[in-house]
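Fold this sequence, please.
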Amino acid sequence: MTSRPFLAVVHYDGAQFVGWQRQAKGRTVQGEFEEVLARLLGHRTTATGAGRTDTGVHALGQAVGFATEDRWAGDVSGLKRALNALLPRDVWVERVHAMRPGFHARTSATARRYRYVIGTDEACRSPFRRPYEWALGRPLDLDGLTRAAAGLAGEHSFRGLAMAGASRPDYRCRVALAQWAPRADGAGVTFEIEADRFLHRMVRFLVGLMVDIALGRRPPSDLSTLLAAADNQAASPPAPPQGLYLAAVRYPPDLYAEA
């Protein structure tokens, strides 16, 4: 029986996971997803994520690729229902697409978008909010955040604003969007950033730096200084993981079988 690639758009609450990627110890989203695929398809199947989210990081649009029998191409809604019937409550498949040959969830992606959520009011410390945002609990200068983010558009080396990678040959990323906005509920701010690729903890390092700038702990010029840095020794501590969400992953339209 022939097989074809499929794409699942997945939401998950990262609070009880040690990240997306399968590990020797600890509960992972990839591990849960592959266990469900094995039960559904009757054999082990690899699930590839477009991004390797860390412990505590959430997703509103993680792209998960896997291959299965071509017969499912005519019943993607049935495949979606079957996955959701077996997945745990903190993982949910929003959509399933049949893809064309050659699709790969990670290497075929042209852009990824992340969202970071900060609570600035007193109620951000509620146990119903703290696991899903940075419970900063103090006002932030939105204009200062916006001015800091303005320097991110375009292509830069983010060596000074990411975890060091011993074998990483290239730290350059092309940023298409970087903007701050007030939250609709008036309880804080959100940061949206879209780029062709992201480095390990890059978004969290960026948010930590921009918050320090907005609070007057660092001068605005430190952003351009760190974009030219050879290491991350002068970076601010990264923002907490629970405020970060993988929001969307983009692919060329011609990779979708229904296109």
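Strands lie at 3-12, 48-49, 58-69, 91-98, 111-119, 134-135, 154-157, 172-182, 188-195, 244-250. The chain is about 20% helix and 30% strand.
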